[in-house]
Amino acid sequence: MITVDKVSKSFSLSRQQRKELGADHSGKTVNAVNEVSFVCQPGRIFTLLGPNGAGKTTTLRMIATILKPTSGNIIVNNYDTVTQGEQVRGSLGFLTGSTGLYDRLTPNETIDYFGRLNGMDEKTLQDRKKYLFDLLGINEFADRRVGKFSTGMKQKVSIARTMIHDPQVVVFDEPTSGLDVIAAKSIIELIRQCKKDNKTVIFSTHIMSEVNMLADDLAIIYKGDLIYNGLFTDFKAGMRETTLEDEFIRIAQEHENVTA
Amino acid sequence: MKNVFTIFKKEIKDILRDKRTLTVMLIIPLFVYPAIFVGISKYVAGQTEKAGQETLRIAIIDNGNANHFSKFVAGMPNTSIKQIADTTSAQTMINNDSIDVAYYFPAGYDSAIAKLEPTTFEYFYTSTNNEFEVAIIENLNNAYKQQLIKEKLEDNHLSGTILEPAKPVSRNLASSREQIGSMIGGILPYFFIIFCMIGCMYPAIDLAAGEKERGSLETLLVSSASRLEIYLGKLITVTLSGFISAMASIAGIIMSGKLIGADASQDGGIAQIADLLNGIMEPGSIAMMLLILLPLNIFFAAVTLMLSIYARSFKEAQSMITPLMIFIVFPTIFGMLPGVTLDYGTALVPILNVSLGAKEIISGTVEMGPLLLTYLALFVYAGIALMVSVRFFNNEKNILRG
Fold first, then answer.
1. B222 and A105: CB-CB below 8 Å?
2. Preferred mutation among A67, A102, A172 to probe B, highest tally of B CBs within 10 A
3. What angle do CA B224, B243, B239 make, to 5 degrees?
4. Is a pLDDT exceeding 60 seen at residue B267?
């Protein structure tokens, strides 16, 4: 389970960045996320929807302990992300669309590396690796260097890398961005499998069709503010527009008018 | 600590598979000394041999003199003489390389010599010709002068000792290692300080900025390993890599000593250099040198990693780290200047202290006080660089700057 409680994150701006933002911006900091709260339950897919620059990645990075919240707190599997970072990371898998691998290592070596870093004992690591390699069809290229792999092959290795320590919480940050249809499908299937395995899943996207396919719970984030948080079925039932895209734009516009 | 070792093991494996880093880290430092020393010794030997075989082509414009000089030259080996008419044709012949030197004797030269009156003669040559040829001409002139003096002394029934009643004989107490060491001792640390840096540079760029650019750093940060463990794993790798580079260059020195030592019998100077190179390899000198290299490497590794983690990309890291070479080359070259020695002041100046310390270890003239202060200063600087570097790595702004 993930509990995000009134979490904000602000970044200090360099002189150059202040200049680029122009006269609209006052102050030396910018708020990427403002007092965001939500809960992700095990066995459900929590979808974080928002346009580019809305604060999705910042939120997910705070959950994954890469960033520290400026205020508020986040509890992952009963561990605090700030004070118990190591325990949080031990029970968490993280996959993004831009994740890179080590070109000069083989899938076998890559998975061993991350398994060991996540504190797995050798027997469990090898058993789990065999299971994932069989499942994803990695065996035939398990001992070749990653550098010359196709995007699809790399994606499979990335998935194995994320799931090697069988994490209870899995964070997907725009996992399908830059992938072709086949590679994207393998990610969608992975997310569904995680739900079946009763894992807590949070995934961010700006693609409406993915929301439609996967979301159990939906949160919409816009300019750092959470402007919707509830069941996806409720969201659909309450739609005033005919398509998800139009409804999203309507809500965002409404929020703009309120804050203006 | 287990995670630090896991990261270190993976990074080393990664580096060993990178041909570019491996070449810069190992192959170049290993072969640069043999290439330089063997190359120079072969060249010098070759030139000396060539000079010994060459004939000096002399032209004489005698203006009716009875050829006092011609008779002298006729008795010298490896010379050929021809008579020519004037200095204009001498210049043309020198320019088109049909002669090496032309001598012009004014009318009445022989009679002036006979009467012991002051006179001059001129010789034409090109100073930009090879140095051996110029030296042969100088030797010829000196020998002719000595011959004239000898003849005149004999004519006047005087002994040669009148020119040098007492001859000072020098007895230099400095060992040949000290003498050669003070001359070339500065060049050796120059190379291994540079190789320490180069050995750190490429892995540091690859392990931080490179990892950022490839998008694998974020993944690493989400593993159970703490940031300090990740940092230490990388730091140890970079330090070891710089150390290996420096060691490879020292191995290159040993190789050079052995290689040029094999044909050292040919030339006294080269034999002394071979002696020096072999002399450096005493266990005591090696231990003192390694003790200097360790903190220097940690210092370089911490600084390069710090800049690399700050950089957005491989390219940016390269453009930030490469100019550091100036700050390394300058004090190192300063340490090579004569008269600059390791004392309690210079021992505190980073890099200069390494350059001077190593130079004096090589020539065997090091004093323990300033050397101990050098070690202390280096460990303190390495500690400071390490602390700043860890802070940099822990700063989320630097890690995610991209």
1. no
2. A102
3. 25
4. no
